[in-house]
Design goal:
Layout lengths: L1 H12 L11 E8 L2 E8 L5 H14 L4 E9 L5 E7 L1
Antiparallel strand pairs: 1-2, 2-4, 3-4
Amino acid sequence: MKSIFFVAVLTILALPASASGPDTLKMKFKVEDGIHKMLGVFGSDWAPGQVQSEAAKNCAEIGKPFGGLQVLGRNAQGLTVFEARCK
């Protein structure tokens, strides 16, 4: 499980430079072992609370409650890398 998570983080860290502006918000929705999660990046124009709201909307669209947002660090382009989960 940890190796899958590590690969997912590396995938996010390697997003193309076109996703590098301060207004960037990108998330990729996936299901792993029955857990609905979003991995993504956001720029400096986004506050973590705003990203959390967007992720919660995605959870609501599939009928699941929001489970939380975890900031994982920054990538080479200076974007904040995160993981969000639905319950």
